[in-house]
Amino acid sequence: MYSTWFNFNLIYYVGKLFGLYPFAGNYKNLSFCYSLVLWIALCYASIKVLNNYYEYSDTLPSSQKLLKYVIKFETYVTLNTLVQCSSNYKAQQFYVINALLIWTYHIFVAVVFFNDIFFLLFMWSIICLSTTIAILPYIICIRMLRHRYKLANKVFKNSISNPTITTKCFYPTEVHNVFIELRNLTEEVKTYYAFHALLIIMESTLLIAAVVTKLVFSYTNNISTELIYNRLFLIFCILKFQFVFFLVREAHNTIQESKKTVLIAHDTLCITSNTGIIKEFEVFVLSCWNNPIIFDVYDFFDLDYALLQSIIASIVTYTVVLVQIQLAISSQ
């Protein structure tokens, strides 16, 4: 299942250094504390650098050259959201290259336009790349789970649609055991990467809120911030939030694939007249309905489209309230 280009040894040890993978045995709690402290520092550094950059950009003259490149990256983002990846190794390359392009975007701006604060923007680019790379293994594992569900459903469906196979060869117990193993594997994956999903969603939401706050303060107080620099950070927010969308989309597609199992089992009930097989498949159907596959984060929220809607609604509500407060303060 693994591609040859993907060096897991390198990623594993780099992940250990950045607190992305927990230690085993008695060091599990120590690893959790280490990861928590490290990622809190990364999120704080992202917000801090964001504020410092805005203070610096307020004093810079406008640049039509920068605006031209910003528009190009906006076009890239629009096309990027339309890409439909198949379940193969190219999807892994797509996500990794996407993360590297975000890093290249920041480095390019730093080298061409902001030589005097290059180190500041370079470190911020490294932080952004690290937090983005952290969620890539989770996305890849979800795709692998969907591929396994698809293979199991294909075998299950072929076994009941083959005219040469009798109802005695349906093996409901074995089918049930296969999908129990898949459900257990799904639980292990989502439990292992729940911490990473929580961090990337919190970091993306906080950065979007920070950008919105800066824009509201600038426009309500008539601060002369150039539009191109505001658009620069709006693009950054879109790129960061895009990975949350990728994660939710992969989880949603995997859940939809797992639901097809129940439909296949219903078709089996219509084919066979064996009472014993019918009872076993009824138990299997009830088990699938009562224990659906979900990708939740510590039972705090589910990775579905409702999460994206709630984040967007919260940001919009926060913006409206902040604008009203600023206008009320300005009127006084």
> What Rg, in angstroms, do the CA atoms define?
24 Å
Total number of strands: 2
Largest sheet, in brief, is:
2 strands, antiparallel
Structural category is: mainly alpha
Distance between the termini: 64 Å
pLDDT averaged over residues: 68
Fraction of helical residues: over 70%
Uncertain segments are 1-8, 56-74, 79-87
Structural account:
The chain is mainly α. 78% of the residues lie in helices and 1% in strands. It is built from eleven helices and two strands. It has helices spanning 8-17, 28-57, 64-80, 89-113, 118-133, 136-161, 172-192, 194-220, 227-271, 275-290, 305-331, and strands at 296-297, 301-302. Strands 1-2 form a two-stranded antiparallel sheet. β1 and β2 (301-302) form a beta hairpin. α3 (64-80) runs parallel beside α9 and α4 packs antiparallel against α5. The relative contact order is 0.11. The model is unreliable at 1-8, 56-74 and 79-87 (pLDDT under 50).
What's the SSE blueprint?
Elements: H1 8-17, H2 28-57, H3 64-80, H4 89-113, H5 118-133, H6 136-161, H7 172-192, H8 194-220, H9 227-271, H10 275-290, E1 296-297, E2 301-302, H11 305-331
Antiparallel strand pairs: 1-2
Key words describing this protein structure:
single chain, 332 residues, mainly alpha, two-stranded antiparallel ribbon, 11 helices, 2 strands, elongated, disordered N terminus
Quick take:
The protein is mostly helical and about 325 residues long. It is about 80% helix and about 0% strand.
